[in-house]
Design goal:
With 256 residues, the protein is α/β, with parallel strands linked by helices. It has one domain: TIM Barrel. 43% of the residues lie in helices and 15% in strands. It is built from eleven helices and eight strands. An eight-stranded parallel barrel has the order 1-2-3-4-5-6-7-8, surrounded by five helices. Strand 3, helix 3 and strand 4 form a beta-alpha-beta unit. The longest helix is centred in the C-terminal third of the chain and has 19 residues. It binds 2-phosphoglycolic acid. 2-phosphoglycolic acid binds next to strand 8. The site of 2-phosphoglycolic acid has 13 residues, from strand 8.
Amino acid sequence: MKTYIVGNWKLNFTVGEASIYLHKLLKKIPNYRDIEVVVAPSALALQSLSLQIDRHKMKLAAQNAFYRDFGAFTGEISFSQLRGLVDYAIIGHSERRYIFKEDDKMVAKKVAAAIRNKITPILCIGETESERAFGETSDVIRDQLMGGLSEIGDDDVDKVIIAYEPVWAISSTKAAKIASPDEIADSVKIIRRNLEEIYGKKVASEISVLFGGSVNSSNAGAYLTVPGVNGLLIGGSSLILSEFSDIIEVAKRVQA
Ligand code: PGA
């Protein structure tokens, strides 16, 4: 099975900076066949980076897109416009859910739009700090997972990648807010158990589940060895060339 190392650049880098960073990254990392390296730059940079990228080494992802293909939706970019430019799209990231008020219905439509346009959705799910404190983690995981998959046919579910990102562990430096491998293992079990109940054993075992939340080159190895975790979704550390390339090396070592 492939290991996914996905860098979410969020709202960072100008188009020029993104191009320089990508150039350096392409030079620095080898081509590992079983490691799928993906970067998600700002939408503005996707067109130019799609011409620059070596798709044998790395793929591009969108950080978001709208679910309608065209029409009167001022300010939006559609999955149909991204078709051919990106291979992946991050959908339902907690920053989209909580800052931009995206609900499960909207997320589900985006997952369907991505699949319709031959783009692999990376569906992000995860509980907030208060949901965790109230013991609601498994309910939230179930709701966001089933909600996010509700607009696609059963046959398409295995085309989706799930990213488990506990909101409280994102962009965190305090030790208390770093997710432990055991906690992640529990949540990944819940994800796969829910998938098995609805879609069967095969889908539940074959779907890729990534972890995200303050991943860096020092903790990547521990996270990648959590049973059921197939890769990492990385924010802050993906903006630092040495960190991101070290994480790729860690992934290679873990796989060996
Ligand atoms: P982080 O971000 O690695 O900076 O915590 C992860 C994410 O938000 O996807």
